[in-house]
Amino acid sequence: VDEGAPSKTLESRTVDGLAKYIKEGHAKRIVVMTGAGISTSAGIPDFRSPNTGLYANLARLNLPYAEAVFDISFFRENPTPFYTLAHELYPGKYRPTVTHSFIRLLHEKGLLLKLFTQNIDCLEREAGVPDESIIEAHGSFARQSCIDCKSPYPQEELKKQIEAKTIPRCHKSSCHGLVKPEIVFFGEQLPSAFFDNIDVPTEADLCIVLGTSLQVQPFASLPGACKSGVPRVLINMERVGGLGSRSDDVLLLGDCDAGVRKLAKAIGWEDELEDLWAQT
Ligand code: APR
User: Fold this and answer.
1) The organism sits in which domain of life (predicted)?
2) Which ligand 1 atom sits closest to the C-alpha of 211?
């Protein structure tokens, strides 16, 4: 062990211990992993929260089971439930949260190694996190194509169809297949960008997990890829995914907007964070 190196572990598994670790410059390559919980305060329901979560509120779509709305074989049979949901969730109607701005702030400070998100709402982009720093592990509404012949489909045309509550179909008359945004449905492969970057967490010196139940693989395995001795922070309503099992895991349980504000204040970034969010 290099005696001269500052202690790489946290002084304490608290906001102050974490703030000190960051202020002392131990965190230069931060990997962030997010889920739907960081967009709930923007008005977008998450999936599994009891009562408020999407899966508790899809009864009106009379699905055989909640996750069918994102199941590729169900979609082929009946695309209407998904498009009903897409009409409600389509990006552009929502403002990023202060948690999104916190991730942007990490980038502004040159500390963001990579953001892995499961969200399809593109709010990280809207908050100003650059494209090259974002891995949208479950795809997004950014592109759409025919599920049969894979031909790309014009974004403006898709928006019109969603607004009109009609189902977009492939323009190729020989195909006429269903068009779907490039959101990863159950039964589909994750984007190659996810697998190309799957080792990035092994290079991180701090891991921050925000607003996810870590129920869905392979995304849920990302925090475990962080090397031992690298603190892993969970900012979430509930304890999930085995976080807290390592001696330098930090659990900041509760609302993520409140959690990132507390951390920013402890580091001394409070004003910068609020200014960034105010511009968003
Ligand atoms: N602050 C902190 N935590 C929150 C907040 C909040 N304001 N709101 C919700 N949460 C927490 C919930 O307690 C839960 O632990 O965020 C987590 C959200 O979990 P899910 O609803 O399961 O969402 P997510 O983890 O993103 O789901 C993963 O499942 O349905 C598939 O592909 C879909 O990407 C999605 C994946």
Assistant:
1) Eukaryota
2) 16
